[in-house]
Specification:
Oligomer: single chain
CATH architecture: 2-Layer Sandwich
Strand order of the largest sheet: 1-4-3-2
Distance between the termini: 26 Å
Radius of gyration: 16 Å
Helix content: 25-40%
Number of helices: 4
Strand content: 25-35%
Shape: globular
CATH class: Alpha Beta
CATH topology: Alpha-Beta Plaits
Number of strands: 4
Largest sheet: 4 strands, antiparallel
Number of domains: 1
Order of helices and strands: EHEEEHHH
Length: about 130
């Protein structure tokens, strides 16, 4: 089950305001999401949000097609409310007003994954005692 990280460049000195915005975040309407043709495409397993100085990172734990995650998030009312509240604290403006614009930002803000290690892939976890 992979993880993805989305970056936000923020204005420094606003960590408390940003934390307050995320405390009131309206979660997605359902964790399961579909692909373009309506078939099951995956599931959101969890998220974590981290802030320090000029960087905000949202970590997404999911199953399935990551492109479908972005489309699912773009359709969520709570995500658009959050984006509107975050806008004054962002160092760089971005357009997330339409599903297409949101999906483009989502793609471009995704960090490159260089390692994803789990207990399932640990060599000691695969050997007999």
């Amino acid at each position: 089950m992979p993880y993805a990280a989305i970056t936000y460049r923020i204005k420094p000195g606003h960590e408390d305001e940003i934390a307050a915005i995320f405390e009131g975040f309206q979660r997605v309407d359902r964790p399961d999401f579909t692909g373009d043709s309506g078939q099951a495409a995956g599931r959101l397993l969890g998220t974590g949000v981290f802030v320090k100085d000029e960087t905000l990172i949202r970590v997404i734990h999911y199953e399935g097609d990551f492109a479908a995650v972005g489309k699912h998030m773009a359709a969520q009312k709570g995500v658009h409310i959050l984006e509107e509240k975050l806008a004054p604290y962002l160092a760089e403006e971005r357009d997330t007003s339409s599903p297409e614009a949101f999906a483009a930002y989502f793609r471009n803000a995704t960090m490159r994954s260089i390692a994803q290690l789990t207990v399932d892939t640990h060599p000691a976890g695969n050997s007999a005692p």
